[in-house]
Amino acid sequence: MKWITLAQLTFLPALAQCATGSDEVQVGYHVIFSYPGLKPPSHLLELIEQGKVGGIILFGENIDDNIADVVQNFQDTYTKSPAYGGHPLLIMTDQEGGQVNRLPGGPELSAKEIGNSSDPNGAATQAGKKAGDILSSAHVNSNLAPVLGVYRQAGHFLDQYGRSFGDNVDLVSKCATTWFTAQKSTGVVAAAKHYPGLGLAGAEENTDIRPVTINAPLSTLRNVDEAPYHEAISSGIDMVMASWAVYPSMDPKNPAGLSSAWIQEELRGRLQFKGVTVTDAIEAGALEDFGNDENRGLLATQAGMDLILASGRNVTQGEVIVDKLVASLDDGSVSRESFDAATDRILDLRKKVQA
Ligand SMILES: *[C@@H]1O[C@H](CO)[C@@H](O)[C@H](O)[C@H]1NC(C)=O
Ligand SMILES: *[C@@H]1O[C@H](CO)[C@@H](O)[C@H](O)[C@H]1NC(C)=O
């Protein structure tokens, strides 16, 4: 009988981290799943064990006092998967503060209240730390916040729930960067959203529900909407979530998250973002003209999005996207080279988060 040596054992996880696993495992890193209700479906746990799941996004309907145990069970199951390389699943939620908190307990102040407080910097520090404490106590390691949008008019889409820190670039840049830096000290990584910005979206212009077009000159988008991303990127923001709005001054056809002009030329090229890109909800109404969920997942991947958010509370949705991307790698409609580069970014991110 031949015993495996300790050196071989410690080498095994490193192997799984390289871009050498099966395509299913490779693709699994890229897809974030969701599920309905409090009890995770057994099929989700099976897929986690097979390595077809890269992470899970949690919504209010998934949360009760047991959430920390539920998440721990995901991570424990994942350690048995061929995808596990010593680094955990990404467990995400939206904990923006104010009225947009998926877990109870705060931050109580909305972005708007922070921006309008007597000490925005102090308030942003407190809120970022609070969000991180609440999430990490539930083993949630990634927050789809803060919002970097610069709102233009009271009552506009981002302002109606106080989701924008303010109506000027400096204030938004400082508050957002302070917020996610404080959150990072708790071990929870952040996603700046919704790139290049939803500050011009009117009250009814909700990309979750319908297509939204933001007609503004590129100079405005760069000087106002995109401006907070400079500071966030130079301060080490780990993820950027793309908007599903169409911005015709850059790309007349595709929403930003399906647009290689926005993602590759502008965000990675001009703004020099090196971290992980994540889509908004793949089932969003804004994408009604872009086919079914798996087709949207393919288009987003081709545009340069690293993580696909299958957030429809439907395990099958994530599964069909994984299968589509496996087939697309196989038939060459997704470039293996850029997909591998995205996998490396995702695995680098996972090294920074806690189980
Ligand atoms: C900030 O709050 C004060 C007091 O409630 C209010 O008068 C003011 O309009 C607010 N400013 C902004 C920019 O929201
Ligand atoms: C779940 O997702 C699959 C694949 O996108 C879809 O066919 C199905 O209709 C969805 N089910 C529900 C209940 O939304």
Automatic annotation (TrEMBL):
Residues 108-129 are annotated as: Disordered. Residues 115-124 have a biased composition (Polar residues). Residues 1-21 form the signal peptide. Pfam families: Glyco_hydro_3. The keyword S-adenosyl-L-methionine does not apply. InterPro entries: GH (IPR017853), Glyco_hydro_3_N (IPR001764), Glyco_hydro_3_N_sf (IPR036962), NagZ_Beta-hexosaminidase (IPR050226). GO terms for molecular function: hydrolase activity, hydrolyzing O-glycosyl compounds. Residues 39-348 form the Glycoside hydrolase family 3 N-terminal domain. GO terms for biological process: carbohydrate metabolic process; peptidoglycan turnover. Keywords: Carbohydrate metabolism, Glycoprotein, Glycosidase, Hydrolase, Signal. It comes from the Eukaryota. Belongs to the glycosyl hydrolase 3 family. This is Glycosyl hydrolase. It comes from Aspergillus sclerotialis.
